[in-house]
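Response to reviewer comment R2.3. The reviewers asked that we include at least one raw input/output pair. We reproduce the pair for Glycosyltransferase family 4 protein here without editing.
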Amino acid sequence: MKRVLIITYYWPPAGGPGVQRWVQFVKHFRDFGIEPIVYVPENPHYPLQDASFKKDVPSDITILKHPISEPYALAKLFSKKNTQKMSSGLIANKKQSLLGKLMLFIRGNFFIPDARIRWVKPSVQFLSNYISENNIDTIVTTGPPHSLHLIGLKLKQQTILKWVADFRDPWTTIHYHKSLRLTKASSRKHKELEHQVLNTADTVVVTSSVTKEEFKNITPKPIKVITNGYDASIKIESQLDAKFSIAHIGSLLSERNPIVLWKTLAEIASENVDFKDDLNLVFAGAISEQVLENIISFGLEENCKILGYVSHEKALQLQHNSQVLLLIEMNKPETKCIIPGKLFEYLAAQRPIMTFGPSGSDVSSILKETNHGKYFPYNDGELKETILSFYSDYKNNNLKVVSNGIEKYSRKALTEKMARLLKDI
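Raw output as returned:
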C-alpha cells in the first residue's frame, strides 16, 4: 500500500458538495493500493453540516486534526447573516448593505487567499514533524479553500515530497472573485500565489476541461482532469412524484436566475389549466430572495415548494422522485468550467435534466455525451417546446431517459483513476 497524506478543510460533519469528493476517494482508495491519511481542522466553521457523510469514512483510517483560528466566528458577532452568506458562497448579491460591503473588503484584502490562511503556518509545523516521523512521500492538497495549497507549497519547499494540488474550483477566475472588492495589490498577490502553486506542484488535478485549458496558460506542469461523480453503491427506489415536478437541488444564488424559465413556465400555465395544476417547482437548498421574488412575480408562488437545506440522503431521494431535474449556473464566462457535483447525482437518478448556463460549458458536453437532457444558454431557443415535450411524456407516463456511458463517472471508477495518478507520480 502506498501511503498518501490528504490535506482537506471539508470533512464530515461538513455538508454540501465540497466534502463529498475526497470522502469518496478515501472510501475506495484501499481497493486500489492507496492507504489514505487525512488531515483536517479540529474546530472548523462549517456553514452546512450533514452527519450522514460520516458513514462513508472507513472507521480504521488515520485522521489527523489540528486547531484552526477562523475569522468567521468573530465576524458573526457583527453580522450573522452576512457571515453565513460569505462562508456559504452566497456573496453575489447586488443589494449589499454597507456592513456587507465592508466585510467583503476585509475578507478579500486582509485574508489572502481566503479566511483559512491562519491555518497554514501551524499546519506546516505540525505536518513537517508527522511526515518525517512516518515516512510519508506523497501529499495531496484540495481547494477551495486555496490556502490549503499554501500548506502543500511550503511542505514541498522544505522536503522532497511529491505533491498533487487538486482544484475542485479555479482560483482567480472563480465567479465570486470579482465580488471580493480586491485592491490592485491584493489581486496581484492572488495571481502570484496561484502561479507559485501551479508551478511548484508535481501534478495539478482539475475537475473540468475548461479549467485545464486555463491552467495550461500558467504552468507547464502535468494537468489531469478527474471530475466529480456519483456513488454507485447507493441504491434508491424511485417513487416518481404524482405532480409534474421540476426540482432544483442546491443553492440558488441571485445570479443563478434564468428569468426566461420562469417566464416560459408562467406562459404555458396561462395557456394550459392542466399544466398550471400539475406544475410543482421544488427547491431544496438556500435560495436567494431575488430569485424567489422573480418566481413570485410571474405568478408561480402557488406552484413552489421551498424545502431549505436537506440531508444528502433526502436530496438523493428527491432527485430520483422528480419528474425533471433542474441545474442552473450563472451566465458568465467564468462559470463555463464549473461542473456541479450534483450533475453526476442527477445522471445517476435517471431523470431528464434541464440546464441553464453559459455557452461552451463543460456541463453541456456531458449532457450531450450521456443523452440526459437539454442545455440552454439563458435564451428561450427550444425551451418552450422542450418543457411541453417533457409535460406530454409525463401525462402519458413515458417521461424517461436512456443513459449513455455514465458508468465512468462512478466514484469507484474515478478513484481508480486518482489512485493510478498517485502511484505514478
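The chain has two domains: 2-229+411-424, 244-407. DSSP finds 16 helices and 13 strands in the chain. Further pairs are available on request from the corresponding author.
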